[in-house]
Amino acid sequence: MQEPKTMMIDFGNGLETYVLTPIDEYNEQQAEKSKDHTFENLSWALKTTGIKSRNTLIPKLERYRDQLDVDKGGCVYFPEARRKPWKFYPKEFKEFIERHKKEFMKSEVI
Fold first, then answer.
1. N or C terminus of the chain with fewer C-beta within 10 Å?
2. Of all helices (H) and strands (E), which one includes residue 21?
3. Dist. CA 16–CA 46, nearest whole Å
4. Residue 90: which of 43, 42, 40 has the closest Cα?
């Protein structure tokens, strides 16, 4: 029997809700998600958040990696090596930023 995968579901109420789903179903949902969305790059994310430096944005993204990582049902592809591109699902990333606006609008590095 396969282990279930945890996915975050957003009901639009500002609360983060998690469910367990079979891995096969999770993989199908991820495939559908990538068909329905285009990726944006790090420059786009900087403009969207209003943060001017990647050195400020990346630590903030890392802080929320468990929630944002595409491999965990999120909306950000974290590169596995330097020089690999960051990728963002635009709609979901904007929603995440809206929910965490206070944290992302601070200009200091955390």
1. N
2. strand 16-22
3. 24
4. 40
CA distance 32 to 23: 14
Q: pTM here?
A: 0.61
CB count in 10 Å sphere of residue 68:
24
* Residue where the block lists tokens 């993204």: 61
pLDDT (tens place) for every residue of the chain, 110 residues total: 556 666 666 655 566 666 666 666 656 666 565 555 577 889 999 998 888 888 989 999 999 999 999 888 899 999 888 888 899 999 899 999 999 888 776 655 54
Residue 8 · residue 74 · CB < 8 Å? yes
Q: Tell me which amino acid residue 77 is.
A: Y
Residues 73 and 8 sit within 8 Å (Cβ to Cβ): yes
CB-based contacts of 38, cutoff 8 Å, min separation 6? 90
Contact between 57 and 51 under an 8 Å Cβ cutoff? The reply is: yes
Q: Is the dihedral of CA 63, 39, 48, 10 positive or negative?
A: negative
